[in-house]
Every structure is written in structure tokens, then in C-alpha cells.
Write a structure and sequence with these properties.
Length: 269
Amino acid sequence: MVTRRQLLVSGCRVLPVVVLGVTRRAAAEPAPASAGPADPKLIEDLVAANRILVDQGVLDGYGHVSVRHDRDANRYLMSRSLAPELVTAADIMEYDLDNNPVDARGRTSYLERFIHGEIYKVRPDVKAIVHHHSPSVIPFSVSTAALRPIYHMAAFLGEGVPVFEIRNAGGLTDLLVRNPQLGRALAQTVGQHTTAIMRGHGAVVVGPTIVHAVARSVYMEMNARLQAQAMALGPVTYLDPEEARKADASVSGTYGRPWELWRRKALGK
Ligand code: MN
């Protein structure tokens, strides 16, 4: 059963759709099989990731982060519908790549979970995904200014940042990636990139580890803020594509350092 607390947490506007979706499926076919318990360290990293992304101003009461299951590439792990700062290990649910929960036990799912499964399906290299509404990134989703790397910490942006125009996939919507078709369209826009901006909404960031996905999300937000400041001053010198490639190769190997700091603060140990 869905508890009163979950109803309040999920928000009444979106809940009926989620509940109907789950109920319809449960009646039609059994839930997918579990891949078994995930590595507790992975679960702890996922909990930490949720809190870190709030601490760093990337997530607020919305947005989510997922990680591919360590025992089965066809499963991923993500919190139930909950403000990221409140996520604990008990809130982590397992999903198949069609975004069906393995063992919902009355817990509601994020409405936009389709972002995750549809990207995992087409990107075997991706092991973690963040969907955020990072505030400094939003202006770049609605203006003609492209988000580009202005410093080495966000060098991964040098590969280009596609913009997902949901009107092309779904016409005039509520902007939410609320079904498999929109999830597939977004995954197509991401392509082989590390990130895509979602017009009038936010962004998605992927990585080969949860550390990469989190660090890239943090430095994407910082770059967006700094780039807007630099643009206000006058013409901007961006990283040359060659500089960006070299800087990303050297920086991305060092994400473990800020991660350990963020993780310790986020978990209080
Ligand atoms: Mn969203």
C-alpha cells in the first residue's frame, strides 16, 4: 500500500499516473526478477551521491541519480520517489531497463525514471546517470548561447552539449520525460555524449562510474555559472577542443579526491 507519507512526498498531481501504471502492469504480468542484492558499497555510494548533489547545489527537492546494478547489466538502482537529500539505503529500488520496479512494495517511482532505463539500454558503457534541474544550466537550455568549457574542470563539455527539444518528440507537453517514447528520444539526443541539456527543464549527465556522473554534474553547474559571468564581461576564450580533450583526460582521473571529501561530508563519516 502507498502510505500517507509517500503520497505527500510524491506530490498528488503526479501520483495517480504512477499508481495506475504500476497497478496495470501488476495485473498484466509479474514483476521482473531481481538480480539479487547489490553490493552494499554501491548502495552507499548511491545514497551519498543523492546527498552530495544536493550539497553541491545540483539537485533540490527534485532530480534523481541511478546506478547500474553490479550483478546484472539489465537492472539499475534508484531511490523511490523522494527528495534526494532524504534518501537512505532503504529507499533504493531495483528496476529493469523498461523501468519497471522489481519489488515496489507500495513505494512510488520517479515519474521520469524513463530517462534512466532508455539510456542504459543504448549505452552499455554508462554505469550511472544523473537527471538534474541545476539552476545555472537552465538559461543555456533556452537561449542561443551554447554551454562550452571555460575551465579545465568542465573539460568534458568540449565534446559538445546537445539540447533535447521535447517538442520535436512529443509536441506541447508538460516537459516531463514521463513515458518510454520520450525516454528513447532523449537517449537518442544524448547519443554518445556525456551530457545533454533539456530545453526549459534541466539536463542529464552520464558516466562510467557514479563518481564520474556526480563530479561531471557538479562541474557542469559550476561551468554554467562561471560562463554566464564571463560572457557578461565580454568575449570569452573557451578551451580549445584539443585542450578540452587533454584536460578531461587528466582531470577525470582525479575525481576520486573531491568525491572522498563530498562523500564523507554527505554521510557524516
Ligand atoms: Mn526533471
